[in-house]
Design a protein that fits this description.
This protein is 49% helix and 9% strand. The longest helix has 19 residues, at 67-85. The protein is built from 4 helices and 2 strands, in the order αββααα. It has 111 residues and is mainly α.
Length: 111
């Protein structure tokens, strides 16, 4: 669900109409957005407690952190191709990259 106009205004006012990450806002020429701290697709609700003000730049970057899933899937596919081709150098490279995903708990369970 999206934030109602009333909840958006309360979020913006609480955060002084500035991005909670960089402090920029309309006065600095930035568009601001009411952002779900816990995203909607992960069950986040459109509540004041789950809302924060982000500038357009930080809102865009936050949305793209989901790209790690795409990145890991690419390396899984590349690893499988390298194994099929018996390309040891590429197998080793992909193994190291995938180990970093696992080490930092990024997109665990994608195989």
């Amino acid at each position: 669900e999206n934030f109602s106009p009333q909840v958006k205004e309360v979020i913006f006012k609480r955060d002084k109409y500035k991005c909670v990450l960089c402090g920029r806002g309309k006065a600095e020429g930035m568009d601001i957005h009411a952002d779900h701290v816990k995203s909607k697709d992960k069950g986040g609700k459109a509540t004041l407690e789950n809302g924060q003000t982000l500038c357009s730049q930080h809102n865009f970057l936050k949305k793209n952190f989901g790209q790690t899933t795409l990145g890991k899937r690419y390396f899984v596919r590349l690893y499988k191709s390298a194994k099929k081709a018996k390309n040891k150098q590429l197998i080793d490279f992909c193994s190291e990259v995938l180990a970093l995903f696992d080490k930092y708990g990024i997109d665990v369970g994608i195989e």
